[in-house]
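re: the backbone from monday

yeah here it is again, tokenized this time
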């Protein structure tokens, strides 16, 4: 059995809040940054106000349908990105999209999210889809995730990783 290696985060500066509580202009600025799109092969169109509204509406619909979804992520009171869990046919996938000035927070945010997953009986394991452009996978491996296969998602190739949230 593959296990996630998650130690509790000692400080509470990272918060998960609903995306609908964030000023849409912040999400637009975030998702329009070219550095953000470098590792998002499904991001093929420029974002505008309509794209932000549709994105937040779709993510809120996941909360309604599945009781879980993506959050806006705050570090202190500052919006640093979004991420969370999306129900897929075989389980829950975790995604994380940070603003470039917050890239260094990724491991701490992922650990907090995996703590949440470990406490939720609906989530016996978590998967991660990473594009082949992602070469630095040390943090993911330190979390205990193991590559399980290569997959196509919307006809785009990804490496799929998995870690168990229960031992």
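seq for it, each position gets an aa:
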């Amino acid at each position: 059995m593959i296990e996630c290696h998650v130690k509790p985060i000692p400080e509470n500066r990272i918060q998960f809040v609903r995306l609908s509580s964030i000023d849409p202009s912040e999400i637009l600025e975030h998702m329009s940054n070219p550095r953000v799109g470098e590792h998002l092969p499904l991001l093929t169109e420029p974002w505008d106000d309509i794209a932000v509204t549709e994105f937040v509406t779709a993510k809120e619909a996941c909360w309604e349908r599945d009781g879980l979804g993506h959050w806006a992520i705050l570090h202190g009171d500052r919006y640093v990105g979004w991420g969370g869990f999306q129900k897929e046919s075989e389980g829950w996938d975790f995604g994380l999209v940070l603003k470039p000035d917050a890239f260094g927070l990724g491991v701490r945010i992922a650990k907090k999210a995996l703590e949440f997953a470990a406490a939720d009986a609906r989530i016996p394991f978590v998967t991660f889809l990473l594009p082949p452009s992602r070469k630095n996978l040390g943090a993911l491996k330190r979390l205990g995730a193991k590559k399980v296969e290569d997959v196509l998602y919307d006809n785009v190739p990804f490496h799929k990783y998995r870690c168990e949230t229960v031992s």
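The CA atoms of residues 37 and 44 lie 9 Å apart. Residues 6-11 have pLDDT under 50 and may be disordered.
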